Amino acid sequence: MIEFSIATIFFALIPFAIFNFTAPSEVLVWTISSAVMAVFIVVHMIVGGRWSTRDVAPGVWPRWEPVFAILLFALVALNQTLNALGLGFGRSYAAFFNGLLLFLLIAATNFVALMAALWSDDDGH
Predict the structure, then answer these.
(1) What's the per-residue H, E or C state across the chain?
(2) What is the pLDDT of residues 69-96, one digit of tens each?
(3) 86 torsion bin: left (phi>0), alpha (psi -120 to 50), beta (else)
(4) Residue-level pLDDT at 52
(5) Residue 34: is it exposed, middle or buried by C-beta count within 10 angstroms (0-12/13-18/19+)?
(6) Percent of the chain with pLDDT over 70
(7) Which of 16, 36, 43, 120 has an alpha carbon within 20 to 30 A of 28's alpha carbon?
């Protein structure tokens, strides 16, 4: 949960760093930023998926959470890959910002799933 909040802050600051330190064109700023975000989410899906399925006991998390999380991960990866390649979005700020909003939604989904797991009535209370 906290890693996506931190990742959202990190990815919100990447375009400023690229633009201020390298001074490329605006198109290049959004291409690099989207490519870095797409690589992060794909690596996180591969590495984090293995850890999350191994570390979580069956029945602890709500059933809908993994399906919803995979859908959000795929949307971020697709959105940022298309933006980095200039397909459909034209390497725009709007598509990059859309990815940031989806990152916040991933963090919110993790928080809701955590609350659902903590408030479950498994112990009879």
Answers:
(1) CHHHHHHHHHHHHHHHHHHHHHCCCHHHHHHHHHHHHHHHHHHHHHHHHHHHHHHCCCCCCCCHHHHHHHHHHHHHHHHHHHHHHCCCCCCCHHHHHHHHHHHHHHHHHHHHHHHHHHCCCCCCC
(2) 788 888 888 988 998 898 888 888 888 8
(3) left
(4) 57
(5) buried
(6) 77
(7) 43
**What distance in Å separates the CA atoms of residue 8 and residue 10, rounded to the nearest whole number?**
5
The tokens of 25 are what?
């064109």
Q: Which two tokens stand for residue 5?
A: 């909040």
Write out the two tokens for 12. 């919100």
| C-alpha distance from residue 68 to each of 1, 16, 94, 114 (Å) | 14, 31, 23, 14
Both tokens assigned to 73: 């991960």
